[in-house]
């Protein structure tokens, strides 16, 4: 079934007196949500006891848990020290994810960093293949790895690139950030046809489970000529994309992605709104 949830905790979670992530799962369950993404964006700073406590609470409330690897991973680098660092960051992320019982690891592929795009992308593929081999050897790959579509034009991670990365191994599942695609396309996602083209590319290129049960990030994003600038809330309607065209298509096609909201400060509330939009569209077909 399709699942909705936040990336991290809303401002209202803390305003109501909560302090710890392990408290979040009962809170979002009461909102009717079923997924949660824990971010290691600034580094893996959780030990085994805390990670296991978070995982136990997520499991007890039936929450699908994913994690986000550190933002500073750049698989396009050619520097030996940084490549070795990427491997360490992935190993630490995978170990913490295992302690939590998380089902997916989302990561940023990298950026051009002053070299031609085809060379940068080739380095990303090479690094990812190496990381998968190492995770396998450490018995840490009983989890899905999700390369994310990125919001800045010079970042590796347009939809075609992410699909090509997923072709490396069947355990790689695309993380489609629709806000990022909208931003790097300078306002590319407006109509149902715009969203339909994304879903069609997933189906035609990957098909099966990965085109049906892919990972989603969604938020409204402000952009400039270079792409993404910053995330906004659903109330900030000056910025796109709007979720309703995608809700229509997900309901029509009976797709079952895990949808994580990355709104700034209102991620749980906006995830609830997305769920309501989807359920409204689904009801139209069922009736």
Descriptors for this entry?
287 residues; alpha/beta; TIM Barrel; 4-stranded parallel sheet; 17% strand; globular
Descriptive report:
This protein is α/β, with parallel strands linked by helices and 287 residues long. It has a single domain, classed as TIM Barrel (Alpha-Beta Barrel). The protein is 46% helix and 17% strand. The protein contains 11 helices and 12 strands. The longest helix has 21 residues, at 80-100. The two termini are 19 Å apart. The model has no long low-confidence stretch (mean pLDDT 97).
- The SSE order reads EHHEHEHEEHEEHEHHHEEEHEH
**Cα distance, first to last residue?**
19 Å
What's the Cα radius of gyration?
18 Å
Q: Can you summarize the main beta sheet?
A: 4 strands, parallel
CATH topology: TIM Barrel
Task: Offer a quick outline of the entry.
With 287 residues, this protein is of the alpha/beta class. The chain contains eleven helices and twelve strands.
What is the fold's blueprint, element by element?
Elements: E1 3-6, H1 11-15, H2 24-30, E2 35-39, H3 48-60, E3 64-68, H4 80-100, E4 104-107, E5 110-111, H5 117-137, E6 144-147, E7 155-156, H6 159-166, E8 175-177, H7 178-184, H8 192-205, H9 208-212, E9 215-218, E10 220-224, E11 227-232, H10 244-253, E12 258-261, H11 267-286
Parallel strand pairs: 1-12, 2-3, 3-4, 4-6, 8-9, 9-12
Antiparallel strand pairs: 5-7, 10-11
